[in-house]
Design brief:
This protein is α+β, with helices and mostly antiparallel strands. The chain is 29% helix and 24% strand.
Length: 139
């Protein structure tokens, strides 16, 4: 896989809550409060941000317990940059982290919305059905 080329810069530093809320909205993901983001981002296991110059254009992170269970969340790319390999680069960086840091038997999950499921399949993710069914409850 070809890495994102300059003038793009990859950072592993955690985003500010304001930048997190902004990139999610600009990428078409659901709204989150700055207050919740401030708490949640502190608990990220690993974060990947992509910048063009000083402008944040993409983001993704891993959450979980750091040993048994991991979840890939918040894959967000601004619309003008979608289809240019930014999402793939974010996923590759997250997968590289998992390859270096997970123990045998670790379970990595994610929830994919169409058409993003095609991206995740390229990284070896499979549907859980019929063996199990994903479920959620939202507050």
């Amino acid at each position: 896989m070809n890495p994102v080329k300059k003038p793009f810069r990859i950072s592993f530093e955690k985003l500010s809550p304001e930048d997190y809320v902004s990139i999610r909205l600009e990428a078409g993901l659901s709204a989150k409060s700055v207050e919740a983001a401030a708490i949640g981002l502190k608990n990220s296991i690993h974060s990947v941000s992509v910048y063009q110059d000083a402008v944040l254009i993409g983001f993704g992170r891993i959450i979980g317990d750091g040993a048994l269970f991991y979840q890939i969340v918040d894959i967000a790319v601004k619309p003008a940059w979608q289809g240019k390999g930014i999402g793939k680069e974010i996923m590759q960086q997250l997968m590289d982290y998992l390859e270096r840091n997970t123990l045998p038997g670790a379970y990595v999950s994610l929830i994919a919305d169409n058409p993003a499921n095609r991206l995740y399949e390229k990284f070896g993710f499979k549907y859980t059905m019929p063996q199990s069914h994903g479920m959620y409850k939202k507050y």
